[in-house]
Amino acid sequence: MNVVKLLQELIRIESHTDGRPIITYVTDLLTDMGAHISVYGIKEKPAILAEFGEGGVIFSGHLDTVVMGEWDFEQGEIRNGNLYGRGSADMKSGCAAMIAAAEILKDDVSFSLAFTTDEEISMYGAEEMARARPEAFKNARTVVVGEPTGLKTGTGEKGILWLKAETKGKPSHGSMPWIGENAILEMIQHLKSITPYTEKEGLTINIGLIEGGKQINVTPENCVAQLDVRYPPVMKKEAVIAEIEKITGLPLEVKYDLPPVTIDVSTPEVKALLDLSLGVCTCYYATEAVRFSPLAPTVILGPGEQEMAHQKNEYVEIWQVERAVKIYTEYALKMAEIT
């Protein structure tokens, strides 16, 4: 199997709005290889567990992407050793490498592939899969999540807090703002203090959405800001919320949260992957490891750089995709030998 051509095919299947076309394409490939397929998740965002025997390594990935945005390259275009396209790094390249490894491994060892199409918005598919088939994960040697790590072994990931802040104002005619109270201006004052909180390895706060006002010639009566907060495993959720409420001076409502993940590097499963990888890293983002790690030893490794995720003109270096196939293959074989 040509993993580069496969990745191009996956990239050209739009999977931001509807996960069914790409899951159908991948399911057909894996069925032809002899996999037993089980389907989970909701109708528009399905997930599959493709089993080649019982036990072994579970290779996990998501086939959905964020919104396309503007691009300077064709989807799937190759230039100077880089393959461009939405999802090229995050993380259709990891999925393509896992499928290519599956073709090599299918007659030699037991393993499974777990693919979802809603990781970017909810991770419900992974959650339902873990809940419906806990024995599959408990019997697995390890779960390898193929998110982009530059082929380094990811030994942890930050937690997520999506927080909502709101300010209230008083409406007035836009020509007489001194009569009213501008909720947007009030929000700006509260958010100014967030600027220093962008430490790469520590707490980060992204002001992702701001909505305020109803009409241009009316003083805004309300303003809502939504904050995407990522925090390292050494921090606790409650302390993070209290800290952000302190620096903004606003009460905050939790809209969504996922805990951080810490991976034990002393286990045989992780040590074996460390021997094959290009180093160690902590993931700035959250992954479906948070759904699987309570059930099985879980580790993160995939082609592509973390910083490429969600970028305009996202790309992956082709050599990393090809190397990932080799790493996944050798890792599955090595895990089959360890008793």
Distinctive features:
339 residues, Aminopeptidase, Alpha-Beta Plaits, 2 domains, 6-stranded mixed sheet, 10 helices, elongated
Task: Kindly provide the radius of gyration, computed on alpha-carbon positions and rounded to a whole number of angstroms.
Answer: 22 Å
N-end to C-end Cα span: 30 Å
Mean pLDDT: 94
Strand order of the biggest β-sheet = 1-2-6-3-7-15
Strand share of the residues?
A: 25-35%
CATH C-level label of the largest domain? Alpha Beta
Number of domains: 2
Stretches where pLDDT is under 50 for at least 5 consecutive residues are none
* Global structural class: alpha/beta
Your description of this structure?
The protein has ten helices and 16 strands. It has helices at 3-12, 20-33, 88-105, 124-132, 134-138, 183-191, 237-248, 268-274, 289-292, 318-337, and strands at residues 36-41, 46-52, 56-62, 78-79, 82-84, 111-116, 140-145, 153-157, 159-168, 204-212, 222-231, 253-258, 261-262, 280-283, 298-300, 315-317. The strands form four sheets. A six-stranded mixed beta sheet has the order 1-2-6-3-7-15, with helices on both faces. A four-stranded antiparallel beta sheet has the order 10-11-9-12. A hairpin with a 4-residue loop joins strand 1 and strand 2 (46-52). Helix 1 packs across helix 3 (88-105). The relative contact order is 0.20.
